[in-house]
């Protein structure tokens, strides 16, 4: 994988001091189930994905606030949601040929894992975390701004801002009513490692909203947000003043 890692680092515009971090960022959990006892020690990229998601959100928020100082919170949230969306990250992953570099189990390989939007967008987040751990926040910021944030420029007539997705609309709903931010809780996972189905529940404060299923956590969360918006709209239609939501922190 040496030559492939070299090409990928060139496309990222960042050279790792510890290439093991990059290898881990490219390792899908499906590979772990195929490792024989006493064989190669393998760590998947799920923890890096978790960290990378937070880092990407922070860098995108800071960048948007700096470049659009007069923008309202709702507009910034909508722009950020697009920049960190699975669709946008998938396009970036395709641009740099990330799918070709992934380390997958045989089952995931045969099911077309190298072209799956959720898998590729998750891998981009894992790579972001790997860069942060290897070179620090400034090195990470440089890569994120160059590959992800500057790829889409707000106001570009050739790249109009798409309609807000369900999670963004639910967040705007909560902000407009001074409610806690929406949380998405995984309540069930079913199926084999390479083809899981996730059940996610959307929550506002301590109020549990409808559950939804999806082949990825992100798709299930989007569907849960859609059902939540429908339920909230119906509730507001029945009782003037909107649903009675108790503010508070929900344990994920």
Characteristics:
single chain; 252 residues; mainly alpha; Ribonuclease iii, N-terminal Endonuclease Domain, Chain A; Double Stranded RNA Binding Domain; 2 domains; 10 helices; 3 strands; globular
Put the structure in a nutshell.
With 252 residues, the chain is mostly helical.
What does this structure look like?
The protein has 2 domains: 2-149, Ribonuclease III domain (Ribonuclease iii, N-terminal Endonuclease Domain, Chain A); 166-238, Double Stranded RNA Binding Domain (2-Layer Sandwich), CATH 3.30.160. The protein has 252 residues and is mostly helical. Helix 4 (73-83) runs antiparallel to helix 9. The model is unreliable at 154-160 and 240-252 (pLDDT under 50). It has 10 helices and 3 strands. It has helices at residues 2-12, 19-25, 46-67, 73-83, 86-95, 106-110, 117-135, 137-149, 166-176, 217-238, and strands at residues 183-190, 197-204, 207-214. It is globular and about 55 Å long. It starts with a helix and ends in a 14-residue tail after the last helix.
Please, what is the CATH homologous superfamily of the largest domain? Answer: Ribonuclease III domain
Rounded average pLDDT: 83
Specify the structural class. Answer: mainly alpha
Q: What CATH architecture label of the largest domain applies?
A: Orthogonal Bundle
Strand sequence of the main sheet, in spatial order?
Answer: 1-2-3
Helix content: 40-55%
Number of strands: 3
- Report the CATH topology name of the largest domain: Ribonuclease iii, N-terminal Endonuclease Domain, Chain A
> What is the overall number of helices?
10
Name the beta content range: 5-15%
What is the 3D form? globular
Number of domains: 2
Specify the CATH class of the largest domain: Mainly Alpha
N-C termini distance: 37 Å
Largest sheet: 3 strands, antiparallel
Low-confidence stretches: 154-160, 240-252
